[in-house]
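Input set for joint prediction.
Command: fold jointly, output tokens.
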Amino acid sequence: MAEYLLLIYEDEARTSALEPADDAALVDEFQRFMARNATRVREGRRLAPTSAAVSARRDVDGGVRISDGAFVESKEVVAGYFLVEAADLDEALAVAGQVPVPHGGVEVRPIRSVRPTPDA
Amino acid sequence: MDATVASVVADAHRRQWGFVLAATVRVTRDLDLAEECVQEAYAQALTQWAGGGVPDRPEAWLTTVARRRAVDVVRRRDTLRDKLPLLAEDDTAPPADQDIAGRDIPDDRLRLIFTCCHPSLDVDTRVGLTLRLVCGLSTAETARALLVSEPAMAARITRGKKKIKAARIPYREPPPEELPARVDAVLDVVHLVFSTGYTAPSGDRLQRRDLVERAEHLARVLHQLLPGRSGPAGLLALILLTDARRHTRTRPDGSLAPLSEQDRTRWDAAQIQEGLRLAGTALRHRPPTRYALMAAVAAVHARAPGWEATDWPRIVDLYDTMLRVWPSPVVALNRAIAVGQARGPAAGLAALDELVAERQLAGYQYLAAARADFLRRLGRAGEARTAYREALRVTENAVEREFLESRLEELGD
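tokens >
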């Protein structure tokens, strides 16, 4: 078994403009997704919008620079995540394909194993 | 004797590499290690067959030797508790140390092809890995085939293998519901290998026979492994029907002979027969696949007694259908050229001019060349000259360049 992080990328402008009823429907859909994949999904959270984000970046002289906002500015940002366990990439992709994300997509990233492979 | 053995080994390398490697990956579940073991088996074959004669089934001999070597290495590593980075494998697969007799070897090869062409790899990496692992081309040969530098190709192959390991891209045939999409990706890779060989993108020779043969071989393997599917039958038919013209594509002096001027009596009749039969099989499926339709176009050309007597309206119909199944600017371009044959150069030019704004066709040599041809036939010499010069600017194959230059010369100043 391997672990994969499913990063949910979303167009924030569109999701934040959802009517409360539509947003509630989306939350329901996520709950159904989690129930359906209960054996695979270890955990998953929805993130606050990027307006609430703060970034910390190492300076060249070793200090830390704190700045307002998400790390990389782009229209589609990380909106949430699931940590799933799967036998291989195809199984992880099958789960990723069920994530209800109408205005964006899902990036699948293998979690690096604790003991690195010889040439990884 | 040694020369004979060397040529038998070389032949086994060309034909059986993917077969032997696929069976060995089962044991190692590690592509690099499997490659090493297969390489060693071929090296042993050179010396052992020279002394003891060539075995009846060279591929079985090579597979047994490579797998035995792999088992040794894996056991040694296991006792060192140094766990191998595993290629994810289907749990239903038989145990690795089972003897090869009685096992479904072709299925192994299919697994290897699907692993190399997994959609999570970019297309260039898929082609590189397929040529390297399934066809057994060296990194240098793969680099030459794909017109990239050897270090760039080596880096791409290494990255591809690392991703297979790190992301655990499975070593198996995809489940039925994913099969159509996955098969299409594999067919596209094989088709790309074929077209790169059929008309080399650059260089002083029109064709790269080695690549054409690899592509035909791969298409044949896929058709044998998936006989009921339309795509593989269509692609194999397309390759056979198109490549049947290989001897007539250049004149004795090496210059390009367009389809309209080729001597059809010299087309490979046996290959056309096989291609027509396969095209028929591919077209029986509904809806028709893209490759079945492309094979159907090639079949119309193969059946036509001559250029003028070709059933052009039928070809236009086929391209119309293809545009619905697989809309692409290149298909639209081919349709426009067929329209020019069916309804005259003015209609063809009008259809082409609709495509000039198409961004994907900007710099595509065949668009300028087709416009030039229609303009020439319409007697619009000045505009035709401009179009030929445009085509020359973007054509890098010497034989094709020479053809365009000769047409430009015929037009005078």
